[in-house]
Model the fold of this input.
Amino acid sequence: MEYKLPFKEYNTALRKNKLMGLKCKTCGAVTCPPKMACQECASLDTEVVQLSGKGKLVSFTTHYIAPLGRENELPYTVALVELDEGPWLLGNIVDFNPQKMSMELIGRAVSISGRVFPGDTFTAGPITRPVFNLE
Amino acid sequence: MRKVAVLGLGHTRFCFNSPKTQVEMLAEAATEAINDSNLQAKDIQSAHIGNCLGTLCEGQATVSQFALDDIGCPNIPAIRYEAACASGTVAVRDAVMWIASGYYDIVLVGGVEKATAMGTALATRAFCMGTDGRYEFGAGLTFPGYFALMTILYSQKYGIPLEKLKTQMAMVSVQSHEYGMKNPFGQIQQLISVDDVLKSPFVCTPLQLHDCCPFSDGAAAAVLCSEETARKISDKKPVYITGMGMATSGKMSSQYRYLPRIRARELAVEQAYKMAGIRPRDVDVCELHDCFSIASFISSENLGLFEPGKAPEAWERGEARVGGKIPINTSGGLKSKGHPIGATGVSQLCHITRQLRGECTDQGVQVDGAKIGLIDTLGGDGTICNLVLSSL
Done:
């Protein structure tokens, strides 16, 4: 059985600022990033849907150390966002000074777009990462 | 199933920049474990070895077969287990089944890593391979980053102001260094203060350098055998592996229903407790996966040793110290003893075995009358492996 929304297709859509996910026809839950099965009930009966691209910030961390080859990104902020549709998504905050991130930002509304990480020796090509824009 | 005993133990010192290769470190620990069992290499029927980054740090795969050949034990099955930082524990769990089933009688378990050979930048990249490379590495998520995100979630969930929580986390590192000082195999033998932790450089906010375990080189090994064989050949106090559990989970974001709890750990330890026929309160001594200071709080709560949200106070009150309610990481833990990831689970096995044999007195960390010990190891986003050891 093939994936309904494989990494490549999710990745291409996110590059165009479209956040795609799976909606379960059995329990109604949304899975994003996509998997083979619904992440709530494991049903394989899902459909590909475009999500609102909105959510709220639940956690963040500013990195002062980087994996090999990504030192030029420092300091950078990684964040977890709860999507309006329910699931959590991990991405970056880029439009806010990473050194001024504070706990008051938890719960802030964000909108989601995509930005390309060109990849490194170990990745199989570029990866589009979610970017969270504070509203 | 047959009962499985721990016989001899072997352990190199954990360190930065080991002059030895992985094969050599593993061979040294393995030979020590075999000698300590009053056995010879030819008595070993199979070898189960944790090794995660051997290919990246030395360009060396199948470390286990070369090490076994070096120690005079060629041609036996030698298997490499990879479950990120839980590789060693997963190797032990599997080895136990080979003996319990009756297929083998005497096996070697071990683990080895040489992470510092990679340097910090490549080592950081290599550890990232335990996150989801498709959906989460793109954003630059690292493991300190993972536990930094967990720290914020923990602070929010249990209503502990971040500043207070960070001071409590610092106490975990301070305690680990105090015990690590006394461990002859320990990597960082240096006392630190809460102030030292809070003044150390930021790694991933809010985690600072002294909230994080080091990159490490080192190996650990042990010989396991059936109860019957142990009685026949060993004059050591018998220690048995009486409970085992393992569970996994997906990428960090897909664990959203439970974070900052790690559900896989709750499921794994439940299996281990059930198999051993014990409850959390029966545990006398515990080695848990303190890759980052906050991880000790999360782990001890998931293991049922403290109530959710209460571990920080427990450390503050000294309940995790020798003489406290449940002594935790009396080896110095990953933070101070070091964390050569493939070796970590086997190192935990060695330390708990010594605790249950009453052999930690010279080290000054003996838990009086300890009879039941718990081991907890986390690999990557979510392999959890737990072992219960018992001298009863």
Notes: The CA atoms of residues 89 and 345 of chain B lie 4 Å apart.
